Amino acid sequence: MIIVDATAVTPQPWRNGGGQTRELLTWPAGGDWKLRISRADIESDGPFSVFAQVRRWFTVIHGAGVVLEFADGERTLRCGDEPLCFDGGQAPGCRLLGGPTQDLNLMARGGSAEMRRAEPGRRWDEPFAWRGLYTAVPGSWSNSSEQRSLAAETLLWADDAIGSAWFFTPADAHSLPPAWWLGYTGNMTQPGCTDENP
User: Which residues make Cβ contacts (< 8 Å) with residue 164, sequence separation at least 6?
Assistant: First the structure.
């Protein structure tokens, strides 16, 4: 099991000066990744980077939200919305709705992957080889045999081939959105989205 404190990860500024990224996890390590999980701080309007042959999941974890501008139309995402899955090669433009945001990204090159909002107390047992949890607020993660208290802005990542049920309980039941589930199984197929959009 890997525990990553996002606030302790050194941010990498973007070349265009519009924000910064904290790379929380890559697999395999060393640059030619198949899976990448990161947290971004978007400080000004501008285009996303191009990630060819990558499926990308994106969600707003703090701030008013963004409008993503695709060739076929705009998508508005606010804090608490379900993640948006799209082709990373499309590199949409991004417009802030009301100031800087923090955003969570999962990118997969091959394999199957997913990001979804973690509903407090509701089980999650999707059959992925690796599963994770990113917290926006403090709380408790548990499965059938283990429990961990997690601070806000923490990534928990584990090999979980047995597919046990996972739960997240925020310390404050009224804090939303509290956390997001992440899953990945590596193979040579192109990953798809649970809900294809755009």
Answer: 125, 143, 144, 145
